[in-house]
Amino acid sequence: MNSDPRANPAPAEPSRSVTERVGRRAIRKLRSRRRGHRPVWYALGMYGLVGWSVAIPAVAGAALGIWLDRGRGHGRISWTLTLLFAGLAVGCLNAWLWVKRESEENHNENGKASTDDQ
Fold first, then answer.
1. What is the residue-level pLDDT of the chain in tens, covering all 118 positions?
2. What angle, 0 to 180 degrees and rounded to 10, lies between the N-to-C axes of helices 40-72 and 79-117?
3. Is the model's pTM score more than 0.70?
4. What CA–CA distances, in Å, run from 14 to 9, 19, 25, 68?
5. Helix, strand, coil percentages, rounded to 5, for the chain
6. For residue 37, is it left (φ>0), alpha (ψ between -120 and 50) or beta?
7. Cα(first)–Cα(last) distance of the chain, in Å?
8. Distance between CA atoms of 6 and 15, rounded to whole angstroms?
9. Does residue 36 come out as left (phi exceeding 0), alpha (psi in the -120 to 50 range) or beta?
10. DSSP string, 38-54
11. How does 92-111 read in b/e, with b if 16+ C-beta sit within 10 Å?
């Protein structure tokens, strides 16, 4: 007989962490089936949407600034730069609010799904 405990290990009981991981995976799988398949293009579209929500106000602010600078002549204030930065700030705020809202909706949906599936 071999007295080395490593040679004949005791039967392992399923650990709680493994069963929890399997349960979480099953919940995620059920949730994704309910949502339907979202291709890679969906994620790229979301990135594009956030980008455009920043770019459009910035470009609009710059265009308005150029128009004001041409009509009023050269003054102490560059309306182009001022309105470009203002448009950029508005666009970033818009994107941040949109991402925050989507994140909260996703978080609420995940919380609801995990309590429904238990």
1. 555 555 555 555 556 688 888 888 888 777 777 766 667 777 777 788 888 899 999 999 999 999 998 887 667 888 999 999 999 999 999 999 988 887 787 677 666 644 544 4
2. 160
3. no
4. 14, 7, 16, 72
5. 80, 0, 20
6. beta
7. 47
8. 19
9. left
10. --HHHHHHHHHHHHHHH
11. eeebeeeeeeeeeeeeeeee
DSSP state of 37: -
Count of Cβ atoms closer than 10 Å to residue 113 Cβ: 16
Cβ atoms 98, 54 nearer than 8 A = no
